[in-house]
Amino acid sequence: MKNNRGRFRMLLRHSLIAVGLLSGTVSHADTAGLTPCYAKGLADQLLCGSVEQPLSENNSEQISIHYAVIPAIKQVHPTEAILAFAGGPGQSAIDVAAVFARVLRYAREERDIILVDQRGTGKSSLLQCDMDPLEAQFAFNDDALPIFEYSREETQKCKTKLNTDLSHFTTAAAVKDFEAVRLELGYKKLHLFGASYGTRIAQEYMRRYPEAVASATLDGVVPMQQSLIAIGEAIDDSLQAIFSECADSAECNRQYPQLAQQYRTLLDALIAQPATVQVPHPRMHNLIPLVLTQNKVRSAIRMALYSHTTRALVPLAISEAVKGNYLPLVGLMGSDSAFGSLAMGMHSAIVCGEDWPALTAQTRSRFASSYFGRLMMESLDASCPIWQVSAVKKDFYQPLSTDIPTLLLSGGLDPATPPSWAELAMVNMTNARHLIADEATHGVAGQSCADKLVAEFISQGDPDKLDDSCLKKATVRRYFMNPNGPAVASQEP
Predict the structure, then answer these.
(1) d(Cα 219, Cα 204) in Å, to the nearest integer?
(2) Alpha-carbon span 190 to 176, nearest angstrom
(3) Domain containing 427: what range?
(4) What is the DSSP string of 262-322?
(5) Cα–Cα–Cα angle for 363, 157, 15, rounded to 5 degrees
(6) What are φ and ψ of residue 440, in 5° steps?
(7) How far is residue 56 CA from its own chain's centroid?
(8) Residue 262: inside a domain, yes or no?
């Protein structure tokens, strides 16, 4: 379809249901067959390997599951390791090794960290749809075509390209690969660390292989019984928090009076007529065409909510865009690079095999109350019948029942996995504790003292002994009052 290139990536970004020190020590892992390797952004030398796994129980085809080990700074517990699960769904754990090394830096002082590219991601049979460059996304009018029709068309193209049954790439199908890696490396006990979607597969691992788990930390919790489509409600709540904070702050309210109304005015204007302008490329700085639509604005603001750095720019971006200056908003759009690294085939396997089949008339009505909830459901209604992913078994949705020591972490401003989700997840956990960092967004261990708490928890094994007072420390950044920074704007006498 002419001029439609680029829309699929933009569509996916809108409708997605979704993060050292040099070491000279040698990992305890059985190093036979492992090779030294490096990961992006991490100076440390890792050990990399792979293990062959059947694609399915009824299929003789094999799939290579790739993994990496970040050696402990000092090998104090040679039979234990930390197994880190990436988010997304669709993120490669090895690709974000530097993030895990930073978030788990205190825990790594005494234990290796294992990173596994979940099947369908990274080097483990990557399932990626064709994506267009940022220029094409900026220039495309994503309000010009019905999302249902376009999603169906692009899904068919991706299915033809991948030519595989996504039923082999769900959480339930992938969990055994992580156990195979543990056995391959020879660790007796694992301390799990899951982030975002990674908390879902961590819980499934705990359910399947409880004897292998010494403890589990779930950061940004996705309950087994909670559909990822409920993220639409979390997005709305997180944005509303900005509007409320600004209204309650004399400084912010003076600079950005009626911010919520400004946002509504901006969206209404773009719904009536998208803005077509020339803007500097966010990274290259050459002028490129931008067709600004309400979808692009909503998506940029949504992604800005994940980080305090970008969150502080939201009032400025909205206020300037209403005036016709889209540069701050373009900066937020250009800062969104995470979704380009997501394996969209694997992402579709998860949401079509686990979240879409569980939708009921009641949940559909509830999720339709938010913009992104409606968008996600419409997109899945178009794409999932084409993918034909086999639905997971009904018991998959049961909350995890376990006495394994478990630490759950939530950010009070999280636009994806709010604290209420963790409360749902722990209803049948008898040895668990839920800690909330009120001013944190998504990924508490990466933006607070929780990284030290995680290390302490892994060492002690008792969540009730943790002193969480440090989580009360203020972390929210002041809003930008002008393009120069969070300074008080000058006022006329």
Answers:
(1) 15
(2) 14
(3) 35-125+170-226+395-473
(4) HHHHHHHHHHHS-EEEEEE-TTT-SEEEEEE-HHHHHHHHHHHTT-HHHHTTHHHHHHHHH
(5) 30
(6) -90, 155
(7) 27
(8) no
First to last CA, the chain: 58
Q: Specify if 445 maps to a domain.
A: yes
SS3 state of residue 451: helix
Q: Tell me phi and psi for residue 61, to 5 degrees.
A: -65, 140
What is the C-alpha to C-alpha distance for residues 378 and 15, in angstroms, rounded to an integer?
9
Ordered alpha helix ranges (H), 327-418? 327-334, 344-350, 361-367, 371-387
How much is the pTM?
Answer: 0.92
Q: Residue 459: which H helix or E strand, with range?
A: helix 450-460
What does the pLDDT look like over 281-316, one tens digit per residue? 877 878 999 999 999 999 999 999 999 999 999 999
Residue 126 C-alpha from the chain's centroid: 18
Helix/strand number for the chain, H first, E second: 18, 11
Crossing angle of helices 231-248 and 259-272, rounded to 10°: 130
Q: Look up the CATH number of the domain holding residue 39.
A: 3.40.50.1820
C-alpha distances out from residue 328 to 58, 313, 413, Å:
53, 8, 22
At 139-166, the pLDDT tens digits run: 988 888 788 888 999 999 999 999 999 9
What are the tokens at 75? 């090998």
**Alpha-carbon distances of 233 from 222, 239, 270, 415, 422, rounded to whole Å:** 14, 10, 23, 8, 15
The domain total for the chain is 1
Answer whether residue 186 is part of any domain.
Answer: yes
More confident residue, 411 or 16: 411
Which residues on neighbouring strands pair with residue 288, listed in sequence order?
A: 279
User: For residue 491, what pLDDT band results from cuts at 50, 70 and 90?
Assistant: very low
Peptide bond into 89 cis (omega under 30): yes
Helix (H) or strand (E) holding 214, with range, is strand 213-219
> Strand, helix or coil at 218?
strand
Q: Is the pLDDT of residue 402 over 60?
A: yes
The token duo for 139 is 């220039």
With a CB cutoff of 8 Å and minimum separation 6, the contacts of 125 are 63, 64, 119
Given a contact cutoff of 8 angstroms between Cβ atoms, the answer to whether 478 and 311 are in contact is no
Q: What is the pLDDT of residues 37-93, one digit of tens each?
A: 999 999 999 999 999 999 998 878 999 999 999 999 999 999 999 999 999 999 999
Q: Is residue 467 part of a domain?
A: yes
